[in-house]
């Protein structure tokens, strides 16, 4: 491997960690249950002016996002969000898949993928969510 290729590989590793770290904090927030813990996890993962848009919700700010997360937990008690596959990213944008999984039996009735934009501080400043699998109503 040439010196240039080594530098490119090192930079890709550091940049990849930036995306993976942001997504790890994303899942910490989405899996936080207690109100105090949820607020702290949202603040750690998302910028204060975060926007969140998916087919079911469009909110802004920490309080709006915390309400969406709380609503998901109320609708699916006993479920956790888990990442599916690897995080892919470039510039300040990353994408990743996820599932909502039952801790009791491993069923995953909801799945999708999100595209996020990171701020300078590494926190997520916007989320565009897509639902690939939803339960029949």
Question: Looking across the biggest beta sheet, what order are the strands in?
Answer: 2-1-6-5-4-3
**Residue share in helix:** 40-55%
Low-confidence runs (pLDDT<50, min 5 residues)? Answer: none
Topology order in helix (H) and strand (E) letters: HHEEHEEEE
The number of distinct helices, counting runs of at least 4 residues, comes to: 3
The pLDDT mean sits at 91
Largest sheet: 6 strands, mixed
DSSP summary, beta strand count: 6
Main structural class: alpha+beta
- Coarse shape: globular
Folded structure, characterized:
The longest helix has 29 residues, at 3-31. The chain has helices at residues 3-31, 35-45, 61-75, and strands at residues 46-54, 57-60, 79-90, 93-102, 110-118, 124-133. β4 and β5 (110-118) form a beta hairpin. By secondary structure, it is α+β, with helices and mostly antiparallel strands. It has a six-stranded mixed sheet with strand order 2-1-6-5-4-3. It is 40% helix and 39% strand. The model has no long low-confidence stretch (mean pLDDT 91). α1 runs antiparallel to α2 and α2 packs across α3 (61-75).
């Amino acid at each position: 491997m040439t010196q240039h290729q080594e530098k490119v590989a090192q930079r890709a590793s550091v940049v990849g960690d930036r995306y993976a770290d942001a997504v790890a904090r994303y899942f910490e927030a989405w899996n936080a249950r207690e109100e105090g813990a949820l607020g702290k996890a949202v603040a750690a993962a998302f910028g204060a002016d975060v926007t969140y848009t998916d087919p079911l919700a469009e909110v802004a700010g920490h309080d709006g996002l915390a309400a969406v997360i709380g609503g998901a937990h109320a609708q699916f008690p006993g479920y956790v969000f888990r990442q599916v596959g690897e995080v892919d990213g470039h510039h300040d944008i990353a994408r990743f898949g996820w599932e909502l999984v039952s801790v009791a039996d491993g069923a995953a009735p909801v799945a999708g993928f999100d595209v996020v934009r990171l701020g300078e501080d590494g926190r997520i400043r916007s989320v565009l969510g897509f639902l690939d699998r939803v339960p029949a109503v």
